[in-house]
């Protein structure tokens, strides 16, 4: 009945609503394809297969009826419910916390990419001791992905390769599907996209065939949340996507539709417009009504229109959909927005080769060898700039950070420069840096906190 209700709604918004909306060209599924299976479930792999079989049937029929059976026009990413909790639990070994190891274990637990997990239910510390079994937590999604695209697309269990590019030349669009489930599991609920995925996708999009395409990105986790929550993604990923030339982003996870127009505080050349989706197939237990979005994009004018379709009745088996305003006190049935044009094409093959080699050296830990390659690129290429900063931070090269990143154009650069100036004892230059308008007037909490700390120390 869900599929029939969506067809009924399409007839409504394409023919009866004012303004009417054209039928969809692309369908985006922003994660949580299935509900998932809880640890301890007997024969859990069969239960996962059953849920994905149901999802496969529904999405196949959806593609048949809405995009003429072209499955390449359906973009799918995994969500945290697609991460198998059962596989994850089988990858763990309990860790004995000896008194003399408490401090070291605590530091390791909260370090990036830690393989330690704390369970409040068990009041125990665990270690991911079987890395291959840990990767298998997305194996069922991997099979579903291959089955849906009939083996024309595959999903890699290597976290550094968990992205896919969908190119639509006739629509002037390229959509990159990212996994935000890097290191995600039921004991580490935070979302993350592996840095190599963003770098790899942007390198791929440097190819001339993608020139002048509007770049859209899809992932699952939201990038902000309440202080009591931890199941969202670091908002810094948006700056990575901005630097990569992405103009519009789509995500799910928070079960409510929301429109965000994000322009980062530093470097105002580009911005990314972020739109979150409601839950199409969620249960009544969710705090928000079932909903989905329709987005119209005018790639010539760089404008868009967001329509929210929300369930109007209480019958989950036979839903009725209609439009709903997105803002309180605003009766408009849609929301208009603008988005940035495609990035300028990369003109130098040598520059692209240098950046690829620098990325390889960085991943190999050869930071000092990557720096000379990036020095020739970082003033004009945002990805090279961020990679150079990361190399210098890994090298504890404070003097080099100061020489290259004043003035700073991002929050991460500002933080690195403040730390470098303090570390090298350049207190007068640090005082001048703190007085700069970008730093003095910042609204970024991480920059403001460090600015206030060093301002106090300089008194």
Q: Which short descriptors sum up this protein?
A:
3 domains; 15 strands; 37% helix; four-stranded antiparallel β-sheet; 16 helices; Serine Threonine Protein Phosphatase 5, Tetratricopeptide repeat; alpha/beta; 459 residues; six-stranded mixed β-sheet; globular; Purple Acid Phosphatase, chain A, domain 2
Please provide a written account of the structure.
This protein is an alpha/beta fold. It has 3 domains: 2-84 and 136-338, Metallo-dependent phosphatases (Purple Acid Phosphatase, chain A, domain 2); 92-129, no CATH class; 349-458, Alpha Horseshoe (Serine Threonine Protein Phosphatase 5, Tetratricopeptide repeat), CATH 1.25.40. It has 16 helices and 15 strands. The protein has helices at 2-16, 44-66, 85-90, 102-109, 131-135, 139-148, 195-205, 236-243, 349-363, 367-375, 382-394, 398-404, 411-423, 427-435, 437-440, 445-458; strands at 27-29, 74-76, 92-95, 116-119, 124-128, 163-168, 173-178, 214-218, 246-251, 258-262, 272-276, 291-298, 303-311, 321-323, 335-338. It has a 6-stranded mixed beta sheet, covered by helices on one side. Strands 12, 13, 14 and 15 form a 4-stranded antiparallel beta sheet that branches. Helix 2 runs parallel beside helix 6 (139-148).
């Amino acid at each position: 009945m869900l599929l029939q209700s969506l067809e009924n709604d399409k007839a409504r918004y394409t023919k009866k609503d004012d303004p009417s909306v054209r039928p969809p060209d692309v369908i985006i599924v922003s994660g949580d394809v299935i509900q998932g299976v809880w640890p301890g479930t007997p024969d859990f792999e069969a239960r996962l297969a059953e849920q994905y079989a149901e999802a496969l049937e529904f999405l196949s029929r959806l593609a048949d009826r809405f995009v003429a059976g072209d499955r390449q026009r359906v973009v799918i990413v995994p969500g945290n419910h697609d991460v198998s909790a059962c596989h994850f639990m089988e990858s763990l070994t309990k860790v004995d916390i000896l008194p003399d190891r408490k401090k070291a274990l605590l530091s390791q637990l909260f370090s990036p990419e830690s393989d330690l997990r704390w369970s409040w239910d068990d009041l125990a510390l665990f270690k991911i001791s079987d890395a291959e079994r840990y990767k298998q937590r997305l194996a069922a999604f991997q099979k579903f992905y291959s089955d849906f695209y009939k083996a024309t697309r595959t999903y890699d269990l290597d976290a550094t390769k968990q992205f896919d590019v969908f190119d639509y030349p006739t629509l002037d669009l390229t959509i990159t599907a990212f996994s935000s489930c890097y290191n995600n599991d039921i004991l580490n609920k935070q979302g993350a996209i592996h840095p190599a995925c963003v770098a790899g996708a942007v390198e791929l999009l440097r190819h001339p065939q993608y020139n002048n395409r509007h770049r859209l990105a899809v992932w699952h986790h939201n990038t902000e949340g309440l202080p009591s929550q931890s199941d969202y993604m670091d908002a810094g990923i948006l700056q990575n996507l901005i630097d990569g030339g992405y103009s519009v982003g789509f995500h799910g996870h928070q079960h409510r539709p929301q429109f965000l127009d994000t322009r980062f505080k530093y470097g105002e050349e580009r911005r990314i417009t972020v739109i979150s989706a409601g839950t199409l197939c969620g249960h009544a237990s969710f705090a928000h009504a079932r909903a989905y979005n329709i987005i119209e994009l005018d790639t010539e004018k760089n404008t868009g229109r967001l329509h929210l379709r929300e369930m109007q009745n209480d019958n989950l088996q036979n839903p009725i959909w209609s439009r709903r305003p997105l803002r309180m006190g605003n009766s408009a049935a849609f929301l208009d927005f603008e988005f940035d044009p495609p990035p300028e094409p990369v003109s130098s093959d040598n520059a692209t080769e240098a950046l690829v080699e620098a990325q390889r050296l960085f991943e190999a830990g050869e930071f000092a060898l990557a720096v000379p390659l990036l020095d020739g690129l970082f003033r004009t290429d945002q990805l090279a700039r961020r990679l150079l900063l990361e190399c210098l931070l890994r090298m504890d090269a404070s003097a080099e950070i100061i020489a290259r990143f004043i003035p700073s154009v991002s929050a991460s650069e500002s933080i690195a420069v403040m730390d470098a100036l303090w570390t090298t004892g350049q207190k007068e230059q640090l005082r001048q840096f703190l007085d700069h308008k970008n730093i003095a007037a910042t609204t970024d909490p991480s920059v403001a906190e460090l600015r206030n700390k060093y301002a106090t120390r300089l008194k």
